[in-house]
Amino acid sequence: MNTTIAMLRLMRPANIITAVSDILAGAAIALFAGNADWRAVPVVSVLLLVAATAGLYGGGVVLNDVFDAELDRVERPERPIPSGAIGRGAAALLGAALLVAGIVAAGFVHRPHWLSASFLLAGAIAVAAVIYDKWGKHHSLAGPLNMGLCRGLNLLLGMSLLPEALRNYWLLALVPIVYIASITMVSRGEVHGGSRRTLHSAVALYAIVAASIFLISVRNGTWAYALPFLLLFAGMIFAPLRKAIRDPRGPLIGKAVKAGVIALILMNAAWAAAFGNLPAALLILALLPLSLGLAKAFMVT
């Protein structure tokens, strides 16, 4: 494994695509809130937010592997750092550089650069990611909520395209917080197997997430747009979770976690549809095959 491939493996490219879908969903919500369309938004602003989330997500997961290096030598020796494909110091430098790049990119979305909602949200995501990587993951309740917070803030980062949308729709961040917290709880059984109780809890939380988006679409009068995406979302997350419940071994739980992460794209497409932006929903949906393709070449969890 050469250094470039090792860096890409650390950054989880398939997952970064799901983070990009958060941004596009948040932007669609912002446009609804501002009664605007894509023609009113500078393309460069969207691209800067996409670059910001790529840096923030990539940096966060790289540092996660840096902090987990000793544990991975025992449980996942094939990963880039314990296998020797990249040094721990070099990986730490890469992760830090990606986080800084993400924050800087967000700072240029609006003026003044360093007081904008985008800049502050990017900084909050970076802090939350490092806290999770170093400390949060070791706590049974705080850890999943910490990880969920990163995703909730990322949806808000997309909404910061039109900052006024944040005042009325910031509570929507609770939905991805709940969803990612449930995935994080399930993921703790990837190596040694999990408990059916945890998996049943995930089923309930997944159902709450899907129902929340559907109810919002009903309120917005867009349920016919959102429903197809929600059905695809439900199919992708519940099928592997059902298999894991029947046999909660590590490999099956790993598949359920992988499906849950990639399914974020479908959830975000449903968000866009629920806020009446079908073109954005279809654009987000188009990211799914790209993420699935990258997931075959690079690890997701």
CATH superfamily heading: UbiA prenyltransferase
Percent in helix: over 70%
Q: What is the beta-strand fraction? A: under 5%
How many individual helices? 16
CATH class: Mainly Alpha
Element-level helix/strand string = HHHHHHHHHHHHHHHH
Low-confidence stretches: none
Q: How many domains is the backbone divided into?
A: 1
What's the total count of β strands?
0
CATH topology: Tetracycline Repressor, domain 2
Pfam family, one: UbiA
Protein name: UbiA family prenyltransferase
Subcellular location: Membrane
Keywords: Cell membrane, Membrane, Transmembrane, Transmembrane helix
Fold blueprint:
Blueprint: H1 3-11, H2 13-33, H3 43-67, H4 69-75, H5 80-83, H6 88-107, H7 117-134, H8 142-159, H9 164-169, H10 174-187, H11 196-220, H12 223-246, H13 250-262, H14 264-274, H15 278-285, H16 287-297
